[in-house]
Amino acid sequence: MSEAAPHLVISGVSKRYGAATVLERVDLTIRRGELVTLLGPSGCGKTTLLRAIAGLAPPDTGTIALAGRDVTHVPPHRRNVGVVFQNYALFPHLTVAGNVAFGLKVRGTPKAEIDLAVRRALALVKLGHLGGRRISALSGGQQQRVALARAIAVEPDVLLFDEALSALDRKLREEMQVELRRLLQEVKATAIFVTHDQDEALTMSDRVAVMNKGRIEQLAAPRELYARPASLFALNFVGLSTRIAGQVVGAQDGMVEVVTPVGRLSARGAFQPGASVIVATRPEQLRLGADAGANSAAGRVRSVVFQGSRTLVDVDAGAGASLLAELSGREAEVPRVHDEVRFAWPVAETFAFAAEAAP
Amino acid sequence: MMTRAAIVVCWVLAIGLALFLVLPLAVIAAASFSPTPVFDLPLSGASLRWYGRIGRLDGFWPSLFLSLQIALLSTALSLVAGTLAAIAIARGKLPGATALGTLLVSPLMMPGLVLGIALLQYFRMIGFTATWSALLVAHLVVTLPYVARTMIAGLSRFDFTLIEAARTLGCTYAGSVIRVMVPALAPSFLISGLFSLLASFDNYPVSIFLTDVRSKTLPIRMLQYIEEAPDPTLAALSTLILAGTLVLLLISDRLVGLHRMAGTAD
Ligand SMILES: Nc1ncnc2c1ncn2[C@@H]1O[C@H](COP(=O)(O)OP(=O)(O)OP(=O)(O)O)[C@@H](O)[C@H]1O
Ligand SMILES: [Mg+2]
């Protein structure tokens, strides 16, 4: 199978629990070897989608195909998926090696092969020396690795991680993010991570699926997701932004003119005149001073937050609007609180979104 | 942080208490080897003559069999019923599950005498007079709480994602239960069985109200011997029971670890 061939194809998957629709016609196609993150707020259906893929909670409608096989109605034990659970779900009555060998034993793999696979999986997660340990005698980070080794050992068609790193402390989590990504690329695994941590999503994945209320709002590479958010929700959920409400007064060629409390702004977007929109841009697009042909707005500096390589400036632009600017360390002058300032930013980096209730 | 003095005091108290509890047992065991027919420490040589007399005690064998029968049977029934009840209470979405659990365990908190009198009255009232069956039912009331309590605790500590993990690793649902849930709950099962067996075998206060002249359980028979003719035979019998219990405890320790029975560790 070629690298680019669709490996996991989810189409039109819906799931309801009682009156609540938890997944609503979810479509998602993942290529072989790809690392995709499901990112979204609590309760948006991430775990439910993962469980549907694993076969633990079959969808009400829609189909799931894995490695060219329709698995929609295949029970979990015949799907060949690997799951790393949030609490690891390691078997307490087995040793580390016993846990890793579990899936292969169940499959009836010959003993010699099991031993080899267990040793290889444990070496991969750097736990080769702990095979004989009891699970209760491991640290959280070590348990996490055992769970990973156990899932990898059976060479699953897809690896599923449900907030697998969230139980680790911050420093260990950041180390594991990098290490896990390297390791998964090494074994050429196709993997789906579930997280509500945007940094984790941006760090770990080839593509990020932003989920909201049981739908996928946007599926894009991390860089594109940040630079070209498809909805107000995606904009808000990933990264910081300046957002100003206004009314469309002119529209042409995918661009709109918007009247806002801070003045007339141009933005990318297709709306009819009269529509209520939110105009937004990322903070690093803002530059001090006026610039002909760019959007600009003035105001009084409310706060200046120094963060090492960058400085965040919050500006009160009047009428309830505010600007958020990120100035890099190279910037010659940084305004001070109460300064009157004007910021400009490129029209091409300004977006208009339908005004809806912010999450 | 405990000070050194506090630690020493704790240990002295613990050891003193243990000695206080164990010494009588040691004295009984020693007395059972006495060559003379009085309860005495065998300072002038040991003898096994009293052990030989146990089997010739009046009504000993029927009492032993009755006690073993009732203990084994009530334990077996309690294990089945108690485990099923525990599953319903800990897992099922039963309305009033907590109340039911408390009710099931409540005989543990009742004085045995009260329980015995109550059962006697009740059985008379409903005309349930078959001694053997009455004894079995009464012992069920005594043993079921042990099983239910231990199994409810074991089940509520059991993490059901383990079953899901096993399923994604290639086990059928039934296979996951056997490979993951059974090993995880086996200690609770064994321990509750052991407790139940011991609780039934040495039960006196409940049995005393329900036995008749022809069918007496071993503890009741032993009290009768003491009243009739106190000689070291009884010490010998006690020592044998003690040894049997020790063997059971050792086996359980081998299988699941005694610390779990004491409930001092997970
Ligand atoms: N077995 C179930 N029965 C009823 N409702 C459920 C069940 N499982 C999930 N839900 C509901 O479905 C919704 C989505 O749950 P899900 O666990 O998929 O969210 P999530 O995105 O993983 O959230 P979190 O980040 O908090 O883990 C929630 O509102 C939850 O209450
Ligand atoms: Mg979840």
In short:
The complex is a heterodimer of chains A (about 350) and B (about 270). Chain A has about 350 residues and is an alpha+beta fold.
CATH superfamily of chain B: MetI-like
Q: Class by helix and strand content of chain A?
A: alpha+beta
Task: Please give the share of residues in helix of chain A.
Answer: 10-25%
Helix content of chain B: over 70%
Nearest-angstrom radius of gyration of chain A? 24 Å
CATH class of the largest domain in chain A: Alpha Beta
Report strand % of chain A. Answer: 35-45%
Beta fraction of the residues of chain B?
A: under 5%
Total of helices of chain B: 11
- What fold name goes in the CATH topology slot of chain B? MetI-like fold
Q: How would you explain this protein's 3D organization?
A:
The complex is a heterodimer of chains A (359) and B (266). With 359 residues, chain A is α+β, with helices and mostly antiparallel strands. Chain A has eight helices and 20 strands. Chain A is elongated. The relative contact order of chain A is 0.12. Chain B has 266 residues and is mostly helical. Chain B has eleven helices and no strands. Chain B has helices at 4-31, 49-54, 60-90, 97-105, 112-125, 131-157, 161-168, 173-201, 218-228, 233-256, 258-262. In chain B, α8 packs antiparallel against α10 (233-256). The mean pLDDT of chain B is 87. Classes of the chains: A alpha+beta (359), B mainly alpha (266). At the A-B interface, β6 and α2 of A face α7 and α8 of B. The structure holds adenosine-5'-triphosphate and magnesium ion. The site of magnesium ion has 3 residues of chain A, from α1.
List the helices and strands and how they pair.
The complex is a heterodimer of chains A (359) and B (266).
Chain A: E1 6-17, E2 20-31, E3 35-39, H1 46-54, E4 61-66, E5 69-70, E6 81-84, H2 96-106, H3 111-124, H4 140-153, E7 158-162, H5 170-186, E8 191-195, H6 198-204, E9 207-212, E10 215-220, H7 222-227, H8 232-237, E11 242-252, E12 255-260, E13 263-268, E14 276-281, E15 287-288, E16 295-306, E17 310-318, E18 321-328, E19 340-345, E20 351-354
Chain B: H1 4-31, H2 49-54, H3 60-90, H4 97-105, H5 112-125, H6 131-157, H7 161-168, H8 173-201, H9 218-228, H10 233-256, H11 258-262
Helix pairs in contact in B: 1-10, 3-4, 3-6, 3-8, 6-8, 7-8, 8-10
The complex binds adenosine-5'-triphosphate and magnesium ion.
Magnesium ion binds next to helix 1 of chain A.
